[in-house]
Each structure stands twice: as C-alpha cells, then as structure tokens.
Amino acid sequence: MATPLSDPSQSPLQTIAVVGLGTMGTGIAEVLAKAGRTVVGIDISETQAAKCVAALEASTARGVERGRLTEQERAGILGRVRTSADLRTAADADLVIEVAPESYEIKHQIFRELDGIVRPETILATGTNALSVTRLAADSSRPERVLGLHFFNPAPAMKLVEVVSSVLTAPAAVTAVTDLALDLGKEPVAVGDRPGFVADGLLFGYLNQAAAMYEAKYASREDIDAAMRLGCGLPMGPLALLDLIGVDTARTVLEAMYASSRDRLHAPAPILKQLSEAGLTGRKAGRGFYTYEAPGSPVVVRDGLTPLEGGDLVPGREIRSVGVAGSGTMASGIAEVFAKGGYEVVIAARSAEKAQTAKARIGKSLARSVDKGRMTAEAAAETLDRITATGTYDDFADVDLAVEAVAEDLEIKRQLFAALDKVCKAGAILATTTSSLPVVACARATSRPQDVIGMHFFNPAPAMKLVEVVRTVLTADDVHATVREVCGRIRKHPVDCGDRAGFIVNALLFPYLNNAIKMVEEHYASLDDIDAAMKLGGGYPMGPFELLDVVGLDVSLAIEKVLHREFRDPGLAPAPLLEHLVAAGCLGRKTGRGFREYAKR
C-alpha cells in the first residue's frame, strides 16, 4: 500500500471534477473539499446541482453544531466547491471522477467528451461498481489514464475505496489516486477489473440469495433480516439493505456480474425484476421489500406482509424443566441460558465426569458475568443451583423439553433421539441444535416425530441472541408455539425456517465465504484486502478469512458440502483451496494455522 503524502498540497491532484451530483457524487465532493481540494461539481440538471450545494451547506452546518468544524473551516469548504451544468468546466481538472448512472452509453458519452476537454495528463476515473473499466478505457483516447475509483455510500463515512486497474492503466495513475485516497483518510484497496470488484462482488451474490430465499417463501423478510443481523452481527439485514441500495441498482449490478461469471448465484432473482419493473425500487420509492413512511424515508411502516402482533395463536405446552444432552461448549452454553431463564436444567453426558466438567464450565462463565457486573453473586449461585449434572440420559425422564447438543454426526444424533424417545415422558418436546443436518431424520428415529423440532443456537449461546426454529413437515403446531414461547423467556430472538440445509444463516453465509476463497484462488485479491474490503465496505464485524479461521475450516467445509449436496448448484461446490487446507490439517485458529498463522498458546 502506498504511503500517504506528508503535505496534501504537494499532491498532483489538486483540482478535481466530479461528474454526477447525486447522493454519491455529492458525498465525494464533500470529502474532497474537506481535504483541501478544489472541486468542480458537474451535473446536467441544475436542480441536482442546487441539491448538492444545499446538502453540503446542511452537512457542514451540522459539523459546526457538533464542534467538528469551525465557521471559518466551513466557509473554506463551501468556497472550494463550485457547480456547473457544462462538462467544459472540467478543463483544468487534474482528476475527473465520473459517478453518472450505471449505463455504458451515458458513461461512454461522458468519457468521449472529456477526451476533447481535459489536459493529456488528466486522470479519468469511473465510480462504477458494475461495468467494465477496461471497456470504458478502450474507447478513450488515453486508456492508460483511465481507472476505477469506487467509493462506498455514504462517502463521507465509509472508509473503503477500491482502486480498479485495467490491463491498460499506467502504474503512475494508480499511484496518484491511491495517494489521494490516503490523503482523504480512506483505506484504498487495489483490485482488478471485474464486475462488483471485491466488496460488491461478494455482497451482491449474498443479497441475491437472500432475495431468492424470500421469493421461495422459505422465511419471512423480517426473519431473514433478523437472522443475518443477530447471527452474523451485520448492521442491516439483506432485504433492508437491498431497499437502501435500490432494487433496480442491485439488479443492474447482478446482471453485469452474471454476464461475466455465468454463475447461477449471480443470476438476478426474478423478484428483483418484478419489483424494479413495478417501480418498487426500495426506500427511494417508498416501497420495495418493505413499505416506508414516504419516499426516501428510513422509517418502515406496517403493510399486508407485516406479522401480526401477539405471536402464535396456538397455545403451547407447559415447560418447567429442560434436559441438555452433551458436554461441549455449545451444550454448557445452552444449559446456562436455560438456567438463567429460570428453568430447572439437567445436563447429561456420556459420563458423570464429563457432565461435571460442563457444569464447572458454566460456573466459570457465571463468575465472569459477576466480575463484569452483569449479574449478582447471589443470582449466579441460584442459576448454578438449578443445574444438575448427570452421566445418564435416564435422568431426562421428567423433563418437559430435551435439547441435544452432541457431535454434528447424523448417526450419533439418530441414536440419541432413539434413546430419548424411550426415556422422555409422553408430551415432552425433543429438540436438536444441528446447524446442517436434516431435523426430520432425527424425528424419524423416534415414535413421536410430531414432538421433534430444531432449535439452532449460535455460539457462544449465552451471548448470541438468535435461535433458528426449524419445523419439519411432521412438527405439531403446539410444539412450534411452545419453542417460540420458550425463546422469549430465555431472551432469545426466534426466527422460523423450514427443514433444509443451512437454514437461514448458514445457507446465506457460507456461499459468501466460499466465493471469497475463490477470489484468492484466482489471484484476484489478497486475504488482507478482501477482509479489509468487507469490514470497511460492507460493515462486517469480521472479514471472511478471519471468520473462516474462527469457525474452523473443517466445520466450514462440512457445511459447504451439505449445501452443495442439497441444492446441487455448481456454484456451491467447495473451493479446492478450502479442501486442500483441511486435508493438510490447517483448520484455523484451533490448530494454529488456517488461512493465516497464529501464535501457539
């Protein structure tokens, strides 16, 4: 990565024209002016140019009110920006950044006109995230001076800038705009020319799958969005994000990606076309996947698809005691959650010693909560007293709900469910925490498949708020209602989904992770640049390779294989690099090496 210039005034890029003064162009103009650059804002619409000026005035006024700017600094910023409807006012620019609509025709026309206006050494940058930079450069009389400079919305807040080179781009031009990005306080990532680049290339495939999941009526829009926020720590759910980006914009990006990749995961979900052609393009139209208070408003209002208040109409069963089968981290975490919720808990393992070890782990977790002021010592002691550790499943005879959290192996789980079927009383609910195996296969191992359901907790169970509630075609309505009620009592957010591989979170998360691995395999971008792009450009709490190493490459590979086997989509086939690392025993943090190396503990 280039080193930032110590004195911005020494940069060769002092006067910068921004062509297209929509939301993105206005944001870029603000960033440039705050960094001391002279900005020429150009838009064929005088109304749009006036909106840009008004937005800059409002933004800088807020900066003064919040103590981030002085009145003198504000005046300087506003004084460095002038607007015009004439492209010829870019004649003296050292750099032109084009952020016109995503259309080759419009962008080609702008670049052809600029060829006859700007100086030979002027750099021409396109802000596209979907179109080919090479194609735009090839039609220019100065292809070596054309590159991509992809800011993220809102430009003043988002740190990532993708610097996109074509095979024709001169290294000096790349260096100049990379230095500029650093001077602007941004994090530039160097990428090659392909639709979506890094961040959008990974993001839009995930958004497309979420749209297809909703279109298939697999889960509600609210549950899909809640699952990805709470299960992955994302700032927004995918359908709400599609509404923010613009459904039509997303469709355009995906069409360009599919034309390049021919990957079915990039083929726009039909619902995107339907919404776009109906004018339901998201927030800007006042309606997309959700309905909004007014066009442009972020406030979601009820519509015909909004779930009714008050939850399930079917009465549930009474749950007073819970059995947890297993002795690992997930089992002890789930037992802790239920005990905190006021339930009497029996934690059973293959031996009394293993069960006692699990209870001791819970005691340590509760002690940490006391140390951090999250609960009193008395409450921690009462919680631990509600837990009974045992080495036999026979002690599940009186529990109302039995939750298994044993190894992710279907035969092991089937054997356990057959045992629970014999031990547990009539009317007891049997739940599996599987993240990838068919719940119905566990149900069929019992004589009471109507009482079996999936409760997929996320690790660490005490901290993660999400539970995927997985109904099979055999699950009784009152069992489903009971589990949702229990989730509320233990302060978890339940989302409903059907019994298919990956449920919601893993079905959307792991293809994204797999695609990130493919980018590295293809030498398109480095691990560090991809991780940085997704954290800075997508708001992800962890980059894909950080997350893969935490989850475990063996676990990730197993889930990828299940998804590929279930959906039969070639695009879901596990990346060979992932298989090679697992075969080599490089499983992530737990082995000290995965995609990265870690210090041995």
TrEMBL record:
Keywords of this entry: Oxidoreductase
Keyword Aminoacyl-tRNA synthetase (UniProt): no
Single GO MF annotation: NAD+ binding
Domain of life: Bacteria
Residue intervals of the 3-hydroxyacyl-CoA dehydrogenase C-terminal domain: 196-292, 502-598
Keyword Oxidoreductase part of the UniProt annotation: yes
Gene Ontology biological process terms in this record: fatty acid beta-oxidation
Record-annotated 3-hydroxyacyl-CoA dehydrogenase NAD binding domain positions: 15-193, 322-499
Pathway stated in the Swiss-Prot or TrEMBL entry: Lipid metabolism; butanoate metabolism
InterPro entries: 3-OHacyl-CoA_DH_NAD-bd, 3HC_DH_C, 6-PGluconate_DH-like_C_sf, 6PGD_dom2, NAD(P)-bd_dom_sf
EC nos: 1.1.1.157
Sequence similarity: Belongs to the 3-hydroxyacyl-CoA dehydrogenase family.
PANTHER family referenced in this protein's UniProt entry, alphabetically: 3-HYDROXYACYL-COA DEHYDROGENASE FAMILY PROTEIN (PTHR48075), 3-HYDROXYBUTYRYL-COA DEHYDROGENASE (PTHR48075:SF9)
Protein name from the UniProt record: 3-hydroxybutyryl-CoA dehydrogenase
Organism: Streptomyces luteogriseus
